Amino acid sequence: MNTSTSTVIDAHKVSRTFNPETIPVLAVDDVHLHLERGEFTALVGPSGSGKTTLLNLLGGLDKPDKGIIHINGVDITKLPANKLIDFRLHNIGFVFQSFNLIPVLTAKENVELIMQLQHRKKTEIAERVKILFHQIGLEDKVNTRPAQLSGGQQQRVAVARALASKPQFVLADEPTANLDSKSAANLLDVMAKLNVEEKITFIFSTHDARVIERARRVITLVDGQIHSDTARVETNVPHEVDKLKL
Amino acid sequence: MNLSLAWRNIWRNRSRSFIILTSVAIGLFAGLFVLGLYAGMMRSRVRTVIDSEVSHIQIHHKNFKDDFDPALVMDENLLKDSLRSVQGIQSIAYRAVTQGMLSTATGSAGVQINGIKPADEVLVSSLNTKIIEGQILNEETKSHLLIGKKLADKLKVKLGSKVVLTFTDQESNMVAGAFRIVGIYQTINAAIDELNIFVNQQTLNTYLGLKQTCHEVAIRLHRDEDVEQVKLTLQSQFPQYVVESWRECSPETDLMVSTLDQYSAIIIVIIMIALAFGIINTMLMSVLERTREIGMLTALGMNRPRVFLLILLETVMLTLVGVPLGLFLSWITLAYFQEVGIDISSFSGAAMSGFGFSSMIFPEFPSSSLLMVMMIVISTALLAAIFPSLKAIKLQPADALRQ
Questions:
Q1: CB contacts < 8 Å between A and B, how many?
Q2: Its family (chain A) (predicted)?
Q3: What is the mean pLDDT of chain B?
Q4: How many Cα atoms are found within 13 Å in the side-chain-facing hemisphere of B162?
Q5: Nearest CA in chain B to A163
Q6: DSSP strands (E only) in B70-130
């Protein structure tokens, strides 16, 4: 297995089948994936291609039937449930399609919650919150509840929450799916900036060409298998993605 | 953060939270009201037993109560001398007691004939307050009699009617005497009214062939709580006699008082089961409604004990809001009915009277049971919250997020 100190994710022969007893659906089929620190990767593919399932497996939200997944050198498929929750808390940030902020907490409290779960000191939490809200450009919305924020603002708070725990990488499941163009562009700017400035690894599943445009690596899934894996330096949409007519 | 999050969560769905805290308040109210009602009934019954029926303590000859043999007497002078020095005694009534037959022109009934000194009896059993027609006995008049309302109705006699009492004297000779009814009394205990008649002690002693003796000494104390202490003192002074407290003289009342807690517990358990199901149902709904959010919290790193604690805290907080509400409701209601009473005569007055209970119940706030009831309500809420909490921690984040 190819692992180095800069390896964040190393998935080997990972498979996941749903309903194995009744009507088996092979959502992820024998996937090999290797992500280095600082990558900005888009996971693309048509609906039902296994993007979300693969993200869930990489994030330790689901367990593969076969294969192993190393995150920062730790085989998360072997971790017991409670250890896995703790591992996620300290190593992985999540951004969900429908924001999933806690409606009864303010934007700031949503971000603080993660650090409180980590038992961080109050002063440290306050400092981190200040930095994160500056990075997402919502300093004036810290005490606002999610219902009073726009979709784009909510998703930016979700990004701040994902980064609050200082994770090695952030998994984002269709982060721009519910956003208008401007909000999506703003969010991508924030994520790209964090990726460049803080070397945070981002991997996001998406259908959105605007997101794919900004990715430096595009992995295409078809029927649960990696169809193509293209690293790019230029900003053009990769050839393989074009072919799939996403 | 868990506390703050739990507190805010409970106000997300105000109507649901209102249902739970109302259930808790009503559960507590029902529990306390039942206890208050029972406590009031029992207190009233015990007061009746002490104030009107048997007084605090009674003294008899050892075998007198076996078959009410009039020959089994106690030395009244000896008792008087000794009782004078006993601390805690308020008043004493010396009685002659025998059993016999009361006959009228139209019928007869078995009765207990109580020979009393009216002046003493008033102080011990407040007999004068029970007279509903006529007057209490006069010590000077020898052949007057007081009869209970129930017996008078049964034998169809009235004030001024002449009756004949037949009984045996101390030598087992049949004796009979004619008496005129000068008073009709009525207590809240119909059984007592039907059985007991009162005549002058001296008159009865004359018929029985007794002098300076009595069969029964009834003693009223200044304080209820001194009963056991005074009883021990008297028993050591009169080892030849039987000294009994009201609990032994009226064992059925003692049984009712001692089983009150068990009856109350059964009713409270039934109320709590209903409350528990209400809480389980509502909290389960709350968890299922937030499946996605709970899954998200687990995904982000909130461990299972914290999720469990969150749901438990929400229930406890709702309970703690409901408890003062229930307490206030109980206090107000019981305070009101303690003043005006609850009249149940319209649907169970006769039945209550048959058991010696007043049909007017004055419930009292069960302060001594308050902590226990509150603990039971809170424990019920906690136990009821376990199932929804377990449901919450069993959610798999990937499955929950898909919903």
A1: 63
A2: Belongs to the ABC transporter superfamily. Macrolide exporter (TC 3.A.1.122) family.
A3: 89
A4: 3
A5: B300
A6: 74-75, 89-103, 108-116
H-helix segments, chain A: 51-58, 81-91, 107-117, 122-135, 151-164, 181-198, 209-214, 239-244
CA atoms of B330 and B335, how far apart (whole Å): 8
pLDDT tens-digit profile of A44-71?
999 889 999 999 999 999 999 999 999 9
- Chain-centre distance for alpha carbon B48: 10
Interface test with B, best of A104, A114, A165 (most B CBs within 10 A): A104
| Structure token digits, residue B175 | 């004796």
- Put simply, whether B289 touches A (Cβ < 8 Å) is no
User: What ipTM did this prediction achieve?
Assistant: 0.86
Q: By the CB < 8 Å criterion, does B101 face chain A?
A: no
Q: Cβ distance A157 to A185 under 8 Å?
A: no
Q: Quick one: which H or E segment has residue B220?
A: strand B216-221
Distances (CA, A) of A177 to A59, A96, A172, A184, B384: 20, 10, 11, 8, 40
CB proximity A229 to B under 8 Å: no
Q: Which residues contact A12 (CB under 8 A, 6 or more apart)?
A: A1, A32, A67, A68, A69, A70
Which residues of A are less than 8 Å from B293 in CB distance? 100, 102
Please report, for chain B, the start and end positions of each structural domain, with discontinuous segments joined by +: 2-49+254-402, 55-249
Is the confidence at residue B353, as pLDDT, over 70? no
User: Which CATH number do you get for residue A42?
Assistant: 3.40.50.300
The pLDDT tens digits for B82-91 are 998 899 999 9
